[in-house]
Amino acid sequence: MSAIQHAERSPLRIFLKTIVARAYPRVVAANRHKSWLFLDMALPMVGALAMVLVYQGLHAPRQYLGFVVMGGAMLAFWQNVLWTMGAQFSWDRGNGTLELMAVSPTSFEAVLLGMAGGAMIMTTVRAAFIILIGSLVFNVTYTAGGLLPAIGVFLLTLGALYGMGMLLASLFLFYSREAWHLGDALQEPVNFLSGLYFPVKALGIPAGTETLLVAAQVPIFALLAGVALRYLESRARKDGKLVTRWE
Amino acid sequence: MKVFFHALSPTLESLSAVSGSHPSSNSSRLAVETRRLTRVYKTRRETTTALHDVDLEVEQGELFGVLGPNGAGKTTLIKILVTLLLPTSGEAFVDSLDVVRDYKRLRNRIAMVSGGEQAGYGVLKVREQLWMFSQFYGMDSKAARRRIDELLDRLGLAEAGNKEITSLSSGMRQKMNLVRGLMTDPRVLFLDEPTVALDVGAARDVRSEVQRWMAEDPTRTVILTTHYMQEADELCDRVAIVNRGRIVAEGAPRTLKASVDEDVIVDLQLDPGTPLLDRLRAIEGVGAASVREEDGVDRFSLLLADDAVLPRVMTTVEGAGRRVSGLVRRQPTLEDAFVKLVGRSMTEEEAG
Known about the structure:
The complex is a heterodimer.
Chain A: H1 11-27, H2 35-57, H3 63-86, H4 88-95, H5 97-103, H6 108-138, H7 147-193, H8 207-239
Helix pairs in contact in A: 1-6, 2-3, 2-6, 3-6, 3-7, 4-7, 6-7, 7-8
Chain B: H1 10-19, E1 30-42, E2 47-59, E3 63-67, H2 74-81, E4 89-94, E5 97-98, H3 103-106, E6 110-114, H4 126-135, H5 141-154, H6 170-183, E7 188-192, H7 200-216, E8 221-226, H8 229-235, E9 238-243, E10 246-251, H9 253-258, E11 264-270, H10 277-281, E12 286-294, E13 297-304, H11 309-319, E14 324-329, H12 334-342, H13 346-351
Parallel strand pairs in B: 3-8, 3-9, 6-7, 7-8
Antiparallel strand pairs in B: 1-2, 1-4, 4-5, 9-10, 11-13, 11-14, 12-13
């Protein structure tokens, strides 16, 4: 047996390796079971289908169908942020994973970034499928104009969403059941703003202002997530229960 | 051997003398050192002192056992030593690093494996899961994979390495957890009830691997908590018996068992009947008595001052109308040492 030369590895190395390692289960392993095709794609499509039927019943312009498909795709990200980012630390705590992370030299920031990165990649694949299939099924067409700004806004939205997810991960851990209620409470406002129910431009907010609002959320959520993680670590060591598995 | 014994009673002082305790003079060779370590849990309803002025010294290369009933403070001690919990007062050092101030550096040098661990992600295969944890320590991926394969092979899990972890039996799962603990080559490995709920074969494999791992490098240290006295007896160089947050005895298993060497130890099996424990304890010459119900019979363990006490015991049993279905005189165990020190069995202590 070869003995490993014991050396303290640099925090940056550990940080980066943790991001990749924690993203791995979501990017690679999560696609191993094809149940995601049903859970993450077919089910969101059902919601979108309902709205499409409503719009068709009202004889709405065809472009509205595109909004519904895009809104359905974005909702996949929201579901992902809420249930597999926000709730993840609680699940990790329950089975003892969080405890092992806490004992290791890695940081919760790296774990969350890995989780977020993996989730973004995983959900982008799912969202792309939703857009593709939704567009085919509902015969939606898109124009190439404004594609780059759209991608920019999309990336900013992801930054804000997953920043919120990192914050929610700590909040869910702190407040347990109450936090689940918060998640439920956020569901309808997010549906409202997602473009699922109606074109968001109907709110009358200029596109530039909307973009600025989204962009501002990125650093705010990142900062709040960092503060929450500091508090999480400090409180966990004081009370000895927050990150340790349930017994 | 360096033993710092925190005396609590005349009985314990005499035991300390047997084990030849004296304060440490060379802290650089210590893997673990605690000084008046205390942890108090406060809730709205009550305040509980889980650890009370615990002084402990474990040398590098020792396999050190922390024994005691559930709720004795073992897990609290381990949580402090692995940096999961802050002490209320006192100090603790692991591999010469302060668990409060130097916890980030210390986490590079330790690992923890607990019994019944279900950590990880069900979608991962065994090798993937272990690789993921190795990255949390910044290990080189190739070196980690090589090390994982070596350890899996040694524990008979080479084929299971490509199985998803949800398909593992509890024994295989615990061996995988042990691989996780060993793969980073920690300076100090903490094993918290590592064989709990395992079948005999899996428990034996886990114990063997721990011994083999230690034998490879004389500076490796293991801190083992268990309430299986036989396991501690088999594995540990030294043990500390913890009860109600205090260390009540410390020394080599052989030394602790020697404290009951002069007693006559008798296991008495009785058919169910009227309660007898207090009456047995009241007999002159009965040093300690405990009972557990097993397979529909009461199994009493008695520490007698000498053989002459046994007839008085039998008279009491007959007087109570209890029928004797078995009587065995046996060698002392660590459990007997615990009973003598504390006055009650571990089971009774757990019951409160």
